[in-house]
Design goal:
The complex is a heterodimer of chains A (204) and B (195). Chain A is of the alpha/beta class. Chain A contains 7 helices and 6 strands; from the N terminus they run αββββαααααβαβ. A 5-stranded mixed beta sheet of chain A has the order 1-6-5-3-4. In chain A, α2 packs across α3 and α2 packs across α6. The longest helix of chain A is centred in the N-terminal third of the chain and has 17 residues. Chain B is an alpha/beta fold and 195 residues long. Chain B has a 5-stranded mixed beta sheet with strand order 4-3-2-5-6, sandwiched between helices. In chain B, 23% of the residues are buried. The chains are: A alpha/beta (204), B alpha/beta (195). β6 of chain A pairs antiparallel with β1 of chain B, so a sheet runs across the interface.
């Protein structure tokens, strides 16, 4: 019965084509990759049909998470974060050392009251996370103008980078009350035009 | 004589070389896919998009507001739990007429979009059509979006998105007035009762 005799084929497959495809994909992802910017809070933005891209530089980002806590960020074009910190230092009369300054300039969104800023900048990674978890965001009590520190952060950011546009990146579950406060703060300084950050979705 | 002895030895060496041309690529493929997975998780392929909005100037006097015909006004009150209350025309008239306030949702087929499409159709088939559209063919419908404090940001963006989808040129986000707040509370209470 020579017909039933099973052919003894080779067990090893030819991996060349698979290897080619894998590396092609890998190259694609390496080239398109851009590390996610470090953000202290997870924000899931609502979707909309608009398709205007957001600029990467010259933006003041106001981050609002689902609990309504507000964080503020400015990109470091032309060392503008340094000027931003200097302006805040002049206004609030606090001092930071070289290490803290470096942390600020290379850092991301700020979401602590100014009083706690030096402590936040001096903290190590773990402590920083803890502070970000427990902070109530930048105080923006609209009833008392002195307590609205968001206003000062934005004014000083616009001084540091005069062409900066304001972008609100809020979570879809963020309470409207805090959005209203943020918009009121912007309007009070004559910022009538700003962008709401969304992810792209379809109409239906 | 020596040549004759060498010949078979060379032939044997050649055969051994031919066997070792294939390299096992399995490990390399494993590594490549591992890296692909890593980069896929760390990249953000979908770039965020921005919706431009312009708020009315704070210090603009009330009289500067364009005259709004009753027919062209639609007010949306965004309540919590994805509920939208809406009425046409003036607030004072709607407040006295409980039938004027209607309830809808953000549903893509039967919700807010349907309300707007029907209103646009009504304006389109109106005998006084010329008065309902401007020279560029845009409707004169003015939509006022008024979220209550307890509603969420996502709903505001949804409402703005409906404006984009239906190509409504005139809309504004406004602060909710006291009588309107009461209306929202009443309807929320009613919804609770019916449950």
């Amino acid at each position: 019965m020579p017909k039933i005799k099973v052919k003894k084929g080779s067990v090893s497959l030819d991996m060349t084509a698979m290897c080619d495809v894998a590396f092609l994909l890998l190259t694609f992802f390496v080239l398109t990759a851009k590390a996610k910017p470090m953000e202290p809070v997870e924000v899931s933005t609502p979707s909309s049909i608009v398709d205007l891209p957001v600029p990467d530089v010259d933006v003041i980002t106001l981050l609002i998470d689902d609990k309504g806590r507000t964080f503020v960020n400015l990109d470091n074009k032309n060392n503008s974060r340094q000027y931003w910190l200097d302006n805040m230092k002049d206004q609030f009369k606090f001092s930071v050392n070289a290490e803290q300054t470096k942390n600020f300039v290379n850092g991301g969104p700020i979401g602590v009251p100014v009083v706690n800023l030096p402590e936040y900048l001096a903290a190590d990674a773990n402590k920083k996370k803890e502070i970000e978890k427990s902070t109530l965001g930048i105080p923006l009590d609209s009833s008392n103008t002195d307590a609205n520190q968001l206003k000062d952060w934005i004014i000083n950011a616009r001084r540091a980078n005069q062409g900066a546009k304001v972008v609100i990146k809020a979570d879809q579950k963020a309470p409207y009350a805090s959005i209203k406060k943020v918009m009121k703060t912007l309007q009070d300084q004559g910022v009538d035009r700003f962008s709401l950050l969304t992810t792209q979705g379809s109409a239906d | 004589m020596a040549e004759i002895q060498e010949n078979p030895q060379e032939g044997g060496k050649g055969k051994a070389k031919k066997q070792s041309t294939k390299v096992d690529l399995t490990a390399m493929v494993d590594l490549a896919f591992l890296l692909i997975t890593f980069f896929m998780f760390t990249t953000t392929l979908a770039k965020p998009k921005a919706m431009q909005i312009a708020l009315p100037k704070e210090d603009a006097p009330e009289e500067d507001a364009p005259e709004l015909s009753k027919k062209h006004a639609l007010t949306l009150l965004l309540a919590p739990k994805n509920v939208v209350l809406y009425y046409f025309g003036k607030a004072e008239e709607a407040a006295t007429d409980p039938e004027a306030i209607k309830v809808t949702s953000f549903d893509k087929k039967s919700g807010l979009r349907k309300v707007i499409i029907e209103k646009l159709k009504e304006l389109d088939t109106d005998p006084d059509r010329a008065n309902n559209f401007d020279k560029q063919g845009k409707s004169k419908l003015m939509v006022m979006i008024k979220p209550v404090d307890s509603s969420v940001y996502g709903n505001m963006v949804n409402a703005l998105d409906e404006m984009h989808i239906n190509k409504i040129a005139r809309y504004a986000i406004l602060n909710i007035s006291e009588p309107e707040k009461v209306l929202v509370e009443q309807s929320m209470a009613k919804a609770k009762e019916s449950k």
